[in-house]
Design goal:
heterodimer, A: 3-stranded antiparallel beta sheet, 4 helices, globular, B: alpha+beta, 6-stranded mixed beta sheet, 6-stranded antiparallel beta barrel, 20% helix
Chain lengths: 124, 372
């Protein structure tokens, strides 16, 4: 699946969609495909301040546990509670219904995130 | 990585790559861990059929009238009482009663087939060779890596494999085997497996394997057969309560501790580790494998700490989401006797939080058997 333009990406395979001062965070289609069947997602709590690059949760597939590295500093304002009952939605729609959480940005958009084109270069 | 430890490939390597499998190192080989996805492959095996490449497992052949006596002295189960064409699970023990490896013996008309875990082959091959050299009238040959093992597992397996064989597979009993041909290729055909389902294992020459693999995929398609990897196999075997060496069984985990007491035949006059196992059975104080079902959605993993009350009593040995156990998280844990009783409520520490898990009788999953 193509990595949508307009999203920002990290080397750790997270994406962020910036909408005003709120960023929606998820993992990329490449990441969900590498992980395989996702069976559990542990997300931060609403109201919690989160630092850039901090490990703030995990994604678990049948075989492995992977950390979620938060790409943007701010405060968690919403989490995708649908993932609790159906974590496989991340496999089906990583860039859409499989989003993880939303952060109210403290310092605006980080400058070290990648464009879709640069992320694809990274994937090679 | 040195030349000596470079990964080997099975005769079916190119087939896996062509099918888009994700390849991982396992037991010294490059093996398919998944094709379409672990859960999809798991479902295919439980409901229809799955096709597995198990050519990484070490196949040895044993010859000579001395084989039963030799094997009975080194293993916990009985080899001498096996019927012609019977297959039997067994465990090679060490002097302390720990497990050297868990294996399958197949008694053929004129020889025996011994299948050993790939991950243990480097230790088992020299061990077996040395011990055979000291035994009367026993000879051993290795076919590890040159001969392939293709397994067809699942309720539709017999319909898929039987029409390709020149022996009557429908009449073959569970845990029996025979020699014949699969689509003209020489094969040892056994009704054995590691999934908890009915199924067949086909031991064939490496040169014949790619053709047979493709034929089984093609013929199996109408029955819903799918290629299945080691990831699905691990979930299937755990649900079926089957031990995996390195997890439930180890050099320092005995067959009793590993939940394989049924396979230990104390009536045998002597075998390596018998005295130690008798003492262990007598004292009955050893930590043992128990199966647990977790209350929540957070999966456990091998190595996580297990608590009974406030006390840390053991660790998780295997764990998975279990589609065939009401889609719950299950695990095996190695814990003291009191904590291993069905109904005991344990705590598993996952990232600093204790999660509830209840001991249940094993196996977690048992297929409904219509026939043999």
């Amino acid at each position: 699946m193509a990595n949508p333009d307009g999203l920002l990406y990290t080397k750790d395979h997270e994406w962020a969609k910036i909408d005003g001062d709120v960023a929606t965070i998820g993992i990329t289609d490449y990441a969900q495909n590498s992980l395989g069947d996702i069976v559990y997602v542990e997300l931060p709590r609403v109201g919690v301040p989160v630092a850039e690059h901090a490990s703030i949760g995990v994604v678990e597939s049948v075989k492995a546990v992977s950390e979620i590295f938060n790409p943007v500093a701010g405060e968690v304002v919403e989490v995708n509670s649908a993932l609790e009952a159906d974590p496989a939605v991340v496999n089906r729609d990583a860039f859409g219904d499989g989003w993880f959480y939303k952060v109210k940005l403290a310092n605006g958009t980080p400058s070290d995130m990648l464009s879709a084109a640069d992320y694809e270069k990274l994937l090679g | 990585m040195t030349q000596e430890t470079a990964l080997r490939r099975t005769p079916l390597h190119d087939e896996h790559v062509a099918l888009g499998a994700r390849m991982v190192p396992f037991g010294g080989f490059e093996m398919p861990v998944q094709y379409a996805g672990i859960l999809k492959e798991h479902e295919a095996v439980r409901k229809r059929a799955g096709l597995f490449d198990l050519s990484h497992m070490a196949q040895y052949e044993l010859f000579g009238a001395g084989v039963p006596a030799w094997a009975d002295a080194l293993t916990v189960n009985e080899v001498g009482t096996m019927q012609p064409l019977q297959a039997r699970y067994n465990i090679f023990t060490n002097a302390e009663g720990g497990c050297h490896d868990d294996v399958l013996f197949y008694r053929l008309a004129d020889r025996w087939l011994l299948v050993v875990n790939a991950g243990n082959a480097q230790k088992m091959w020299p061990y077996l060779q040395a011990s055979v050299a000291r035994a009367a009238d026993v000879r051993i040959e290795t076919h590890h890596g040159s001969r392939a093992l293709i397994a067809v597992q699942g309720p539709r397996a017999v319909e898929i494999v039987a029409p390709l064989c020149d022996i009557d597979l429908a009449a073959m009993k569970y845990y029996f085997c025979d020699e014949g041909h699969v689509d003209g290729a020489k094969a040892i055909i056994a009704r054995t497996g590691y999934t908890g389902e009915d199924g067949f294992e086909l031991f064939v020459e490496g040169a014949d394997a790619p053709r047979l693999w493709k034929l089984l995929l093609e013929r199996g398609a109408a029955y819903g057969l799918e290629p299945a990897g080691l990831g699905a196999r691990d979930v299937l075997r755990l649900e079926a309560g089957m031990p995996l060496y390195g997890h439930e069984l180890e050099e320092d985990i005995s067959p009793l501790a590993g939940g394989q007491t049924w396979a230990v035949k104390f009536r045998k006059p002597e075998f390596l580790g018998k005295a130690a196992l008798e003492a262990q059975r007598e004292a009955d104080t050893y930590s043992r494998i128990a199966g647990v079902v977790l209350a929540g959605r957070v999966p456990a993993r091998a190595g996580y700490a297990v608590y009974y009350g406030a006390e840390r009593v053991g660790e998780v040995k295997s764990a998975s989401l279990a589609p065939s156990v009401e889609n719950k998280n299950i695990a095996t844990v190695l814990v003291p006797k009191l904590a291993a009783r069905p109904g005991a409520v344990l705590g598993i520490e996952i990232r600093g939080t204790i999660h509830e898990a209840t001991v249940v009788p094993m196996p977690f999953y048992k297929r409904s058997r219509k026939d043999g």
